[in-house]
Write a structure and sequence with these properties.
This protein has one domain: Nucleoside Triphosphate Pyrophosphohydrolase (Alpha-Beta Complex), CATH 3.90.79. The chain contains four helices and seven strands, in the order ββββαβββααα.
Amino acid sequence: MTTRLRSEYPDAPRVGVGAVVVRDGRVLLVRRGKPPNQGMWAIPGGRVELGETLQEAVERELREETGITVRAGSPIYTFDVIVRDDEGRVQYHYVIVDMLAEYVAGEACAGDDAIDVGWKTACEIDVLSVYRPTVELLRRVTHLWDNPPPRSTLE
């Protein structure tokens, strides 16, 4: 018997991925169009589908959400998203694995779950409504903005 995992009020945690893509000193962010954290800026990403590797999920999600092609690298950050409703029931539960990704091609445009997309500087991020785990992640990788990782770390 196959169980389909629901996003809202799930029977088990869902696995999601995010991608840190840096280009010309700017990081790619999307403004979320759906809950949880609707309207907040975050790195692009989404759910891992059955049979996908983390890298395949990152590459697919970036195409769907932003229209760009990336080459996914290694995991760099993990965190949980657990949202409870007013009665204390788990409404959303995600385990998120964020990864480095190298920009390959394409022009960023909002698609799928994003209502906006943009390449943002560190100064711009300071004034945007950015999802807290995204801020923590970007603080850990700010050195990448001016010094992109060598290709070997993305393979």
